[in-house]
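I'm stuck. Protein, please.
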Amino acid sequence: MPFVVPDACTLPTVDQPLRLAEFDSLFATALRTVQPDGPTRTRMLLSGPAGLEATVRDLTARESECCSFFTFTVTGKPVDGAEAVTLVIAVPDAYADVLESLTDRAVAMSSGAGS
């Protein structure tokens, strides 16, 4: 299922593919597990080199600016010269389908099945 940008997103249309590519890259390189917690909340565990937490914080902060319905909680910790990051994504009930679509895309990208 392709990700459909919700109407509530204020990111200029020309920039939307670039932002999606940033998430795709993050998911493809760092996503380790996805744990949905009902239709409006998903927990993602990521790992990667030092600086991963800052990358995730920057990306999610910029995403919150254009899609204010997302709530991102980022928690990182150093692990053997690298970083482990927990990313919790929550949305209001009205955007459950958007979260489902993003979660599906994350799983597809992390397994190499996305495009």
